[in-house]
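Checked the freezer inventory, then went back to the computational side. Two predictions to log before the end of the day. The first one is the construct we discussed on Monday; recording sequence and tokens without edits.
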Amino acid sequence: MMKSKPDEEDYWNSSKFKAFTFDDEDDEFSRLKESKQAVNSIRRLVEEDDDEDDVEKVSWSGEPVGSISWSVRETAASNQRTDREPAFPKINADTPTVSRSHSGYSLSSLFKGKTKTGSFQFSDSLSDSSVRLYAPELRKPKSEYKDYVSDWSPEETVHRMQQGKAVSLEKFRSLQDKLLLLDFSISAHDGNVITAVLIYLKRTLSKEVLFRELESRQTALRHFIHYLTETRDQRLLLELLRALGRTEDIALLQYKEHLSIADENKRRDFLKSCLSLPFSPEDSAHVQDHYTLLERQIIIEATDRQAERGGKVEIFQKFPRRASILNMPLITTLYYCCFYHYTESEGTYSSPLNVRQTFRISEKQFFVTALAARAKLKAWVDVDALFTSRNWLGFTRKKSPLGFHRVVDILQKNSAPTQVLQEYVGLVDDAELRISLAQKHKCHDIIINTYRDLKDRQQLLGYRGKVERGSVEERKINELLDNPQIRWKN
């Protein structure tokens, strides 16, 4: 259908498209004007309720677009994408609200042609060279962003761990990198770093590979054994020792399990089963003694508990037992037997002589233990018998495997009377030590006799002034001073 001429003129005049003419405004000003109109039309699409400051435009990372931290993160991300396979960012739906940034640029400012702090036209931003170079100027070499991308070598990682900085070991995936990490940590001589690396290797390597590599690195092996011991990972520790062929260590580790057994009969049976383990000769003797001692303690405890309840044994009535003898050390058991069963024959389990012979207790150790037990009971006759010995002519004399000055200390701690102390103070060999002990325990006769033997008249005169006037000690000193047969040295 053909339009009439007036209709055609209305069409061309009302259409938004104009016919080409040489008179149209095709200068630079008109093109810029159209560009501004296009931007303003986009601006209306972007704005919501004409409130440009209520909504913050953010990137995937949650930082305002155009800010410094956003540019740094984008730079690091682009560098990572060039080295690794591309991956989409992980979006956390629970990400909290992003705080407002103080940057003067945002996505809305690029569309609207103005900043938050002031306004400028879009055409002005096109001509501003500083704006156009803003993002490229922040892109620095990759080496300056290692703290962000965690791109450290094993040596650098160990160095950062020594400094207490946070690192991630997950990037070391190959066996070579993991072993380099372990070797550098050993070279750093830092136990905490070595342990941290070992924990990572324990989690990421098979047991066979880990045990094989630790065998050639004794420092790391010791740290790993200590770590497993502290964390009580008995199963893995046993597997490690078995792989290394350390049978004695395996036996000792199994032996230590007796500590967790509360019932004494079950513990005794467990110790009996340990006798067949491959211990060293010294450790084997120790385990045998432990089993024998516990077996004997069970018998003594049952007998004494029954006697104590019966109320017919005098010593249990005068000195009730304060604790059970079960699981006590050997010397404590010997002291107990010397206290409650001193006079029993050697054929009984509770006899002190039987305990001494069975467990090969030395003469000195037996003497000290028996002396302390009998002195505690104030059994001074038994104490005196410990020192009495006879020679082949039948003469008796006092002999001690322990220095008599230590004997005096033991007796004094058990509140021995002065007469008993005086007898043993006089047996101390050193004269000065004997005088010192005699002064401490007020043994006047010992001091007077020692000065007499030393023929020291001046010391004797001085000591006369320290005793009571008219006392037996003063009269004895006067008799010695008046004795013409004594040839004094001074």
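The second is the one RB wanted added to the comparison set:
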Amino acid sequence: MISFMQIRTPNPKLSFLSRTSRIPLYRIELSFPQKVFFCQAKYSESEIDGSFNLRVVSPTLVAAEKEEAKAVLTLFLKKQGLSNALAARAINRSESFIDHLVSRLHSVHKSRYLVGRELTTLEIRDALIPYLEALHEEYGSILVDVVESFPNPPVVEKIEEAVVEKVPLPVTPASPPSAVLDSKKLKALARVTDVGPNGKFPPHILYLVDLGMDIETIRVITRKFPAFAYYSLEGKIKPVVEFLLDLGVPRSQIPTILTKRPQLCGISLSENLIPTMAFLEELGVDKEQWAKVIYRFPALLTYSRPKLRATVDFLYEMGLSAESVSKVLTRCPNIISYSVEDKLRPATEYFRSMGVDVGVLLYRCPQTFGLSIEANIKPVTEFFKDKGFSMVEVSTMVSRYGALYTFSLAKLVLKWKFFLTMDYPKAELVKFPQYFGYSLEERIKPRFAIMTDKGVRLLLNQLLSLSEDSFNKALKRKLKKLLDN
């Protein structure tokens, strides 16, 4: 993947590694294969140039999603060690990569957009962070250069004391560790992609391909988790696959599950997976829903029983019944990944201070408790207070529609501005905060235009929540009543 060219004159542009360490860097050129980041191969099923047809997504929504993508990328870069200033500078130089992230969202969640549904902040974050993590695994410390130069190959210069001291640079430098996959990953990749003397791939790779995995997907998994290349077919991979099939997981979903959590193949069935399943069943998790639960969050099976117990005990502490706990774990299994002390309990205290029934909110929208209080929850609360809503009204809205906090401020602002043109009282939003969950371009504006054209008035929830047929019937009834009067 990486070809080393001749050393050239030093340039002040630094790679991420050169900003954070003294390890020498050499000018290299990265030649990306045809895939230009592994995800683009998956875009072949989309409509235009490997990306979702943006005509079905309004410019205002695209703009809002670009801001969310920038926020996700900023937080990710800061997590890798960049300062606020360096992260901001990288974002300013990464317009093409931001567009690429948004295009990825549209391609992955194509069906959602076609029916007028918008992605929440959590869904956007969950879609992009694993992708960014995979890129970081592949490109390591030059990730910033990769992002800034997308879609063109980045160039990294040698910037260190050797230049200042006029020490001659080697004509053929050793491959810098920051620019290539380490030997462990190279060996692992060779193990899954090299053909044997018989001209075939290893048995475990042929088995995975037969399941529906392509070689590139297997390479991606191996880059991220090299141990996957060494799992035996009969001792590890096949038993886990058969275990999942026995639980009712469709064969077509196995590749996705293993891609999300390849560690599953390294976990003992008898000592871990089966006891974990039995433990969850004792907690009341519906066995009929196992396939959906594992597909949504395969990592659930890799958590320790003490971790599972801690989360379940917390849910009981919040007043949820055994049946409710079972439904929460079934509908939102990733709540197990939220730290009780760092996420769940602080969020509980915050919502209680607002007067929200925490038990009800946990049951209706558990994913809200995985949001950052400072970055996501407080700004939304302050937004509604600034618009004249009392804390009691905000609390009522949250209790009725917990997903309110899962939308970005950018989307809330757009819908609030349009709401002001609709001539509804604010009390309508308190009664029906679900307004903010509907697509502005695909649902709210078209329905409002039809209603206005008819010269009648429906309640906000009637305007948006009714099916197409019921909506048209409601308009006819209102129009008939108006004509009769």
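For RB: Residues 59-79 form the longest helix (21 residues). The chain has a mean pLDDT of 78. Let me know if you want it refolded.
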